[in-house]
Design brief:
- The chain has 237 residues and is an alpha/beta fold.
- It has one domain (5-189, 197-216): Vaccinia Virus protein VP39 (Rossmann fold), CATH 3.40.50.
- 28% of the residues lie in helices and 25% in strands.
- It contains eight helices and eleven strands.
- The strands form two sheets. Strands 3, 4, 5, 6, 7, 8, 9, 10 and 11 form a nine-stranded mixed β-sheet that branches. It has a two-stranded antiparallel ribbon with strand order 1-2.
- α1 (24-32) runs parallel beside α2 and α6 runs parallel beside α7 (169-178).
- It is globular, with a radius of gyration of 17 Å.
């Protein structure tokens, strides 16, 4: 039996699949997403469904669909939805993102979110465990394939939000633009004020006009090394 814990006091309960641990990137992505006007959302590679739970906890108007390749993780995401009585507002499809045209109709969603594997094949050593390797490396879905799926699934005027590594920002923006998803909002995540970015958050709009707004950096710690006020807000601490 899975062990459930509250994400914050009074918040959703959550259990984790063995090889998909809840990370800061997922939590920051869910906070970055603008849910205003969104009614139908999809999480590409939803793992245990943490981002879905975080988004569903923010607004009652949203319905979320998760797509997950690994059956174990997909079942864990379904259990998380059920444990939070969200079975009518969320669903999980066990499937391959690359088969998006077979799974869904074009433009079915107002909102697409993704916390994809960060490292292309051949860029470094991946974990020996196959499931962990899938979570870190683009073994089953490249960045270009992910953006292609996001563009197909997102309706015109809808948004796609992703978290990635800053060293691949140029590639990410080019992939999004090339697929018809115009980058509109960008935020860098920095461990401390003097630190280089460790993550990048990007929102793109399907069929949007050019014009990118760069937001102030999100600092994880202040100059004294203490948890920043914004991180405390995001984590409900």
């Amino acid at each position: 039996m899975n062990s459930f814990e509250q994400l914050w006091p009074g918040g959703p309960v959550f259990c984790q699949a063995a090889h998909f641990r809840l990370g800061t990137d997922c939590v920051l992505l869910a906070d970055f997403v603008n849910t205003a006007g969104a009614r139908r959302g999809i999480d590409l590679g939803c793992a245990s469904g943490a981002a879905m739970l975080l988004l569903l906890s923010r607004t009652e108007r949203l319905h979320m669909t998760g797509v997950e390749l690994l059956p174990e993780a997909a079942e864990c995401a379904r259990e998380n939805l059920a444990a939070n009585a969200l079975g009518t507002r969320g669903e999980v499809v066990t499937g391959d993102i690359r088969e998006h045209r077979k799974l869904f109709r074009a433009g079915s969603f107002d909102l697409v979110v993704a916390n994809p594997p960060y490292y292309p094949v051949g860029s470094g050593t991946l974990p020996a465990n196959a499931e962990r390797a899938l979570a870190r490396g683009e073994l089953t879905c490249t960045l270009e394939e992910l953006c292609t799926a996001a563009a197909f699934l997102c309706r015109t005027g809808g948004s796609a939000c992703l978290v990635h590594k800053p060293e691949r920002l140029s590639e990410l923006l080019c992939c999004l633009t090339g697929c018809g998803l115009e980058p509109k909002r960008l935020r860098l995540v920095c461990p401390r004020p003097e630190s280089a970015p460790s993550l990048v958050l990007v929102e793109a709009r399907r069929g949007g006009r050019p014009g990118l707004r760069i937001e102030p950096p999100l600092l994880l710690q202040d100059a004294d090394g203490n948890e920043s006020a914004e991180v405390k807000r995001i984590y409900h601490r």
